[in-house]
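Journal club side-thread
Mid-discussion, someone asked how the predicted structure for our own chain would compare to the paper's figures. Pasting it here so we can look after the session.
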Amino acid sequence: MGLRQFLIDAWSWLNYKPVMADAGRPGSRAFPELVKTWVPPQELRRLAAYKVLAAYDNNQAGQLAAAGGDEGALERRELGDAANLVDTALGYLLGSEQKVTVEGAEHADAETPTPGAAEAAAVQDRLRKWADKELLTFRVQQAERAAVLLGDSVMVLAWNPEKQRPTLRVYDPGFFFPQWDDEDEDFPRRVHLAWELPADDDAGLRARVRRVTYELGPISEDGEPGDDGVATGGRQYPWEPGRTSNVTCYLTDAEWLLEDLKNGETLDRLPMDKASFRVRPDGTELNRLDLMIDFVPVVHIANTIPDGGEHWGRSILARVLQALDELAATDSDSSAASATTGTPIIGLAGARLPVDRATGKPQELQVKAGAVWQLGETGRMDALDTSPQLAELRARVDHLLERIAANSRVTAAGLGTLEATEVPSGYALKLALGPLDALIGMMRLAREHKYRLLFKMVQRLYQAGRAEGWTAGETLPARLAWAPHTPTDRGAVLEEVVKAYGAGVLSLETAVAMLVEAGYPIEDASQEVARIRAKAEQVAAMRIAEGAARRERGDDQDRDDTQTAA
């Protein structure tokens, strides 16, 4: 292999697979969709990597390898280990629940609320109602499973005038084609979402490609930039009052017939004179439609923190893919060995074989219960015992599972393969889960800013749509709060909270927040604080009333004693 062929990039961990060399080659059976003329050449490796990972997730890695020329791969046994690893990591990432929180909202019901706390609580309540209507928990699970499996996922927001709220949709990352003008930019100014639509003979539709483009550009009075590219108009966005902006986001949604595309007319060079633009229900043509916002409403979620100069995440399977291949091969060998163990190979010497009366030839003997074979005086029967090899293969399966658990950092304890007798104490279990804690911490850190960006866009779309209750002003910081990914000792946390709050070193708001993080069923921290304070005030009032009643009874008793003495 020459140095020009030795690639080190975000998908180098797939270089060992011969099938990757077929990506983009004419006549490829493994990746026929990548031969299309509209697919950008620089995206071929990424799209091929997605397909390979999807094949592992669906127990079809052997079929994909066979399509690439390895006919023996069809005998490969895949028992769901890749999907199990993905689902396990996803479960730890998501935790038991996710909540939308706005900074400062927890202090809204305090005795002395901090400035802006009431506004933060109102925004938090509205965002949570939006999350319920848009099935945010469901959408997050959709997006995150793709991110954990493929390394990337895409969420797109759009303002719906009928519903009067932003709608959220999850796209396959294979449809996502960002256009970075400068490699140092964090966010692209132009994004394509593109996929192929197959021909439908019954409906009279030919094969075509659909491309949805979001692009930031200068504002003009007619919605188009001037010949010199300079904006001729400007506007003030409600989230930046007092500041005039000359940037807006344009939406284009069009289709092209595949037969009209020529070589070199890739996704970012499709001929606009052959485009067929889509039309909204109100009759508006989606050709550079001004969305009246100054951001691209597309959020790309990466499973890991990208390396410098990269933009793509890495799959949870990336570093253990070869181990999964070894495991599948061992499972295949184990299946073959179990066949010869259950139905052994038997050698006979001096046996009298029955003769087929029709053909006059000896019949084949079958190993089955109740079979009787006649042996001569010097006859002998020997059975091939493959049980030791089967036991060795099973031990190798356990060894490979341990390596996969360790190298993926999900750990044997996280996968549930660690025997309970091997954990002498809770502290030992905590140490065993250490790599998993670090993995989930890194994965959540990679998503922290992306979900903050998502909720910022939701607020700004509400403001741009002039929805009821959403006034002009600065966007408040909101985030997605994750539940603990591993079980917590609630008793220890409760004892710690009670002691710290009783000693006055923790505020009531912080104490309730700690209980929420420990997994106590508290729906809303601010409401819980309000209920606790109301209960405390009620108890204090009852004690004051009881004290007054005791004093009154004491005065009455004193008067009675005085009268008796008189």
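Post-session note: Confidence is low (pLDDT under 50) at residues 223-231.
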